[in-house]
Write a structure and sequence with these properties.
The complex is a heterodimer of chains A (334) and B (183). Chain A is α+β, with helices and mostly antiparallel strands and 334 residues long. Chain A is 51% helix and 22% strand. Chain A has three domains: 114 residues, PAS domain (Beta-Lactamase, 2-Layer Sandwich), CATH 3.30.450; 104 residues, 2-Layer Sandwich (Beta-Lactamase), CATH 3.30.450; 88 residues. Chain A has 13 helices and ten strands. In chain A, the strands form two sheets. Chain A has a five-stranded antiparallel β-sheet with strand order 2-1-5-4-3. In chain A, strands 7-6-10-9-8 form a five-stranded antiparallel β-sheet. In chain A, strand 1 and strand 2 form a beta hairpin. In chain A, helix 11 runs antiparallel to helix 12. Chain B has one domain: Rossmann fold. Classes of the chains: A alpha+beta (334), B alpha/beta (183). The interface between A and B is medium-sized, with 26 and 32 residues.
Amino acid sequence: MTNREEPGCIEAGILENALVMIAVMEKSGTILAWNQAAEKITGYSKEEVIGKTTIWKKLYPKKEYRDTVTQQIATILTKKKYFENFETIITTRSGASRIILWNTKESSHKSGPLVVTVGQDITRLRQLDAFRDSVIENANVLITVMESEGKIAVWNKAAEEITGYSRAEVVGSRDIWKTLYPDSEYRRTVTRQITEIISTKSYFANFDTKIRTKTGASRVISWNTRQIGEDNQRYAIAIGRDITEQKKAEEALLAYMTEMAMRIQQPVGIVRDNLQDIAQLIRDGKLSKDEIAMLLDAQVRNAAQIGNNVQEFQKAILEENSEIPEAYRKFLEG
Amino acid sequence: MAFIVNPDELARKRLFLILATPGNIRQCNTDLIKEVSGLGYHTVVITTNFPYTILTKLYGEQGVDLTKVSFIDAVTRNSIGSAVEIPGIVRFINNPANLTDMGIAVTEILKERSGQKVCILFDSISTLLIYLSSPNISKFIHFVTNKLRLMDISGIFLATEKGLDPMLMNQLTTFVDTVIDSG
């Protein structure tokens, strides 16, 4: 493992077979040890690396980036003799980029101080983070993550678009809820409802509230939440779907159906009652032929108007819904 | 005798919405005419359901003083095409959907009877639903009730119970002073 001095067999085995890359080097940067994981991650063999300082130029081939990393390391080392969780992007022998999380430890040795450097390949982890961030960011639903005190930790693009409040205005603060629910009475009601739900289960589903956006518009949001994290660090993730248009459509449908019931069912009842009245008047001999004809004519006109109303409703249905199959469309068009 | 509308409220020029069952609405109309006439009012009946000739006959049979009743008839011309108006007794509207003409007729009759004890009886809001959407009905009733209040005239609007959707019902309730469910 090292060309300077053989360490104990056990230690050597551990270093050699560790799943993280481990390099031991002199203060000058000369590599003394380079384990299998280091070989595997970087693509550079022990023979190419040990006894030399050239590996760093290979891992950071772009001078500008290399200078930046060097500068950062130098800054850290002015304050302490090691660095923790220092993240860089290396270029492997094959030209691929890998993200490495570095931790170092200085140890003294009879030949002089040595630096043990442990590098964890977190490329996959970062890819997953980026993927998760991208999903959150590009979801067309409002996503926010709150810390235990209600402070906002995440506020995605849809949240910005729906509410009008930017991430900069929201993250790190808990004031957004007061802003979204400016009416204190309504805010209290919502808070009470949420508390009631949370007291029986730790989440709520399809909980609708009305928020006020930055432009002053009102939007209806359907909320779903989940608790995430450990006991000492709990978060609540809230997903809000803007159902304003859906609500409007539901209200319109309800209004439409009510109007239809009122203007078809009710009038049919009126014609029926009128005809009953007319029949009774005829039986009682109170009407002349002309009067009977006039009354019946009036009911015929009423019936004709109800028929026209039905056609109007059918037309309205066709205009509102483009997905009605052609056969039904023709039938409804009469 | 029990009154459908409170005479004191009528005297205070209140506006009433009376809900009746379909089977009872015709009798309710006649009872109201008798009641209001008996209190010394001239009643202007706006009829959208039965022609004035039939109503006159029915009122006469029930002992209503016909000199105290006049009509705005939105049925006859719609049924037989033409009818000659009789000043002071009947005005005709071509059809119940013609709210402009109905509004003009109400205004003119009220002017003619200015200074008299007059009560308007609208029979019925439910029949208007055959010809008009509920927003238009609401606007028209709002117009008429405003006119009645400005001219200090009492008014009674008849409708069949459970025949109006909650939204229209709410609106009508705000236009009138009292809602009576006559059963």
